[in-house]
Inverse folding.
């Protein structure tokens, strides 16, 4: 599979993963919100029912309810109890009914044992009588007035005012099973979940073709960039080849001829005992040095045939050029390391760029080049003792200094990685990792 094909798959996989995560998050948030909405709806429904019960029962309250003997049941008590059981307790979710006076006395309950008992009203319960509002809260099973509801689990207690009854203002309280709250929350969730999930899936399905087109466009852009990059590399190689050929067949040959001529002249002058023999011999030596430098430069300008010379020999040629500039250099190559021609070419180009920077910018006195194998990658390391480099400094080169960025694009296109980091003891460490079977 090509690098571009895998990149497109990564884009689509990223989109699908993001869509799945977004769906899960939205569903979870909506589930929670739906449950809360269900709870609020059930609580509000319980408040409305309690207020309705209070209004219906207000007319059934006997005038002597607050002053009667709690141990005796009058006909009015029996009538009130019958209405409560027929109208209120007939609802399956109602657990308990209580009627309180403002001083906290229970003057009626479907549990007769509570009649006449007095408990202190909580502030929110007293506020119901003062403001006429309806309040709801979870019941506290540890309170003495809730002794008969302790085995009911979670209970919702709702308070409503009973205004202008024959016995005065009273507080009406109903206990509901918490199961009714959970049932309402579940009902709302089951109603909205299919709509929400279907909408999210439809949105993802609509966006998927757009993501596919975006991935294809990104792939085309990458391919066009790669083609331009390769065209630039090919043009550079052709120009390097032309310049190297002109130098080798022209200047280098001319200087080599001059060297032979100077050597012959120096020998003759020496035989004749001329005082100019030493000067001519020195000129011949300088000319030979210039020829050697030019030949090293030719290796930098146009690399040798790596398949014939071998990568270690080619790297050795680069280091010879480095040494000619006064920088001590050492080469370490793992024995038996072989990789594809494209890999060798890319490694050589990376070493060439790194050593050029060492000589030109690093102000180094020593450099070590190593080539080893790590898994299925050939790893080139160039470490120097120069002025060093800041982290990621090379990723923000000044205008006209794009060599490493250009090389980094080539390496990444081949599925490799390039990095330039500060050395542990100063200097810089240049590292390139290239797949050994890369087909650039």
């Amino acid at each position: 599979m090509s690098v571009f094909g895998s990149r497109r798959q990564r884009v689509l996989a990223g989109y699908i993963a993001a869509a799945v995560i977004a769906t899960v998050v939205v569903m979870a948030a909506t589930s929670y919100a739906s449950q809360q909405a269900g709870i609020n709806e059930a609580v509000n429904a319980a408040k409305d029912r309690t207020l309705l019960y209070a209004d219906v029962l207000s007319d059934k309250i006997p005038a002597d309810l607050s002053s009667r003997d709690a141990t005796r049941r009058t006909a009015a008590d029996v009538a009130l109890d019958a209405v409560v059981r027929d109208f209120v307790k007939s609802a399956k979710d109602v657990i308990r009914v209580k009627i309180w006076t403002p001083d906290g006395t229970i003057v009626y309950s479907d549990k007769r044992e509570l009649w006449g008992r007095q408990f202190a009203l909580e502030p929110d319960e007293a506020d119901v009588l003062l403001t006429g509002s309806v309040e709801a809260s979870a019941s506290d099973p540890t309170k003495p007035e809730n002794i008969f509801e302790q085995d009911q689990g979670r209970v919702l207690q709702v308070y409503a005012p009973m205004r202008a009854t024959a016995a005065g203002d009273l507080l009406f309280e109903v206990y509901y099973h918490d199961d009714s709250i959970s049932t309402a929350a579940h009902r709302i969730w089951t109603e909205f979940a299919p709509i929400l999930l279907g909408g999210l899936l439809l949105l993802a399905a609509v966006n998927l073709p757009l993501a596919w087109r975006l991935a294809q466009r990104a792939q085309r852009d990458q391919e066009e960039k790669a083609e331009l990059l390769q065209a630039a590399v090919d043009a550079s190689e052709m120009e390097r080849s032309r310049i190297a050929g002109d130098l080798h067949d022209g200047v280098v040959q001319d200087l080599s001829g001059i060297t032979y001529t100077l050597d012959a002249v120096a020998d003759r002058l020496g035989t004749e005992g001329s005082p100019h023999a030493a000067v001519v011999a020195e000129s011949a030596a300088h000319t030979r040095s210039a020829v050697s430098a030019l030949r090293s430069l030719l290796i930098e300008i146009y690399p040798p045939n790596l398949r014939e010379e071998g990568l270690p020999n080619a790297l050795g040629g680069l280091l010879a050029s480095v040494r000619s500039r006064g920088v001590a250099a050492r080469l370490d190559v793992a024995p038996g390391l072989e990789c594809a021609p494209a890999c060798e070419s890319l490694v050589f180009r990376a070493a060439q760029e790194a050593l050029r920077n060492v000589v030109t910018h690093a102000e180094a006195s020593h450099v070590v080049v190593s080539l080893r194998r790590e898994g299925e990658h050939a790893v080139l390391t160039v470490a120097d003792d120069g002025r060093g480099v800041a982290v990621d400094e090379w990723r923000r080169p000044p205008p006209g200094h794009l060599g490493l960025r250009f090389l980094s694009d080539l390496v990444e296109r081949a599925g490799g990685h390039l990095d330039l980091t500060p050395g542990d003891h100063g200097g810089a460490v240049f590292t390139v990792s290239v797949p050994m079977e890369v087909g650039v």
Remarks:
- The two ends are 13 Å apart (CA to CA).
- The mean pLDDT is 79.
